Input
Amino acid sequence: MSRVNIGLIGLGTVGGGVVKVLRENSDIFIKKIAVRDINKKRNIENLDPNLLTTNPYEIVEDPDIDIVVEVIGGIEPAFELLKKAIKNKKHIVTANKELLAKKGEELFNLANENNVVILYEAAIAGGIPIITPIKTTLAGNKIDKIAAILNGTTNYILTKMEESNVSYEEVLKEAQQLGYAEADPTGDVEGYDSAYKIATLGTIALNKKIDINKIHREGITKISANDMKFADELGYKIKLIALAELKKDGQVDVRVHPMLVPNTNILSTINDVTNAILLEGHPVGKVMFAGPGAGEMPTASSVVGDIIAIQKEINEENPLPMMKCTHKIKAEQTDIEETENKYYISITAANIPGVIGTIGEICGRHRINLASVLQKGVCKEDFAQIVVITETSKESDIQNAISELKNNNRIVKINNLIRVME
Ligand code: NAP
Ligand code: HSE
Output
């Protein structure tokens, strides 16, 4: 194999892992590492301080560097740095899902014009290989559906809420103390991280460019300990699911939101920080990928795999042709209002005769068929706790029914509305 020089931009969790793993590989040399704070104490033994710089342009403009590895995250300065590196004919390895989701098209076009590749296995599900399998071994398939758990923090929180029957707030606090959740958890718990990941994964799998701005996104902050308990009693687990589906009419339905997943579906068994991707295609059928979606070493595994893939073909006229981005068609994305789902509705109602009839009557007028209605007891204020599961219904009909229920004087509160996986 040819010797290659890499420049590493970022030496945090992922960058530190990359340095440690590359020490086990003698053909790959780290020429320079860009950081924000050169004096920061780092958990890396025998790190040569001469490798460090606070000027990442020393990397992207160095003619001796073949591959730029970007692990700083965010849009700027990562975007400007990668554009400069590509124009200087450097191959790119990145773990930056936000950058790919928001600026991927521009970067991939620029890479194609400059005959370099951008590899990003670590950006989708950390240590789980998914982009390379889709682009190579599964290349003979027409993939029409992906349902995935792409965020470890939220899966950890939901698992602990379910196991201990405690509130979201309590588990979040504990997860922050243990270092599993960030001090500002918004990106994870509000579903942004999963949306970035499914935008790129869906584009690659379904072969149509997905617009991140058109992805319907909901997080897990409204899930209660009661929702967890009721879902469990009904035979479901609640998971934050990222979906991308090619519909029969050619539209692409892409969204991120919590779902009740039946205990018979393998995604219901994915717990703690583990990620999983369930892919459906023809001719392969259903395939499941699962493993560590984040962390120093699993993420470094994917980054280093991408570096080695480039190293092996660095002298080819057209390196890694199967890994290049070839998506020319923009996806026509389904509006959430037009989707059809089963729903879980948790309702607090006045404990009076006929209240379940009122709920059934309002739903019926909006073409919603109820699959089951359970009264989960009466609380001390003499309110009835009612849980409804619907048959498959149109989202706009459900939203209209919820508005009418909220305005009915027999209904105290709509506690939650969660879509149910079939
Ligand atoms: P991190 O621990 O916060 O590290 C970021 C690194 O970038 C730090 O070393 C920081 O320098 C450096 N940096 C930031 N701005 C810089 C600038 N302008 N110039 C030079 N260096 C700069 O982040 P991380 O967790 O490693 O994540 C990096 C990327 O990988 C993100 O895109 C993230 O989404 C993605 N990713 C992370 C994981 C994971 O498990 N952590 C998994 C998959 C993907 P200092 O050290 O001096 O502050
Ligand atoms: N914050 C992400 C998670 C890890 O919790 O899964 C980085 O992709």
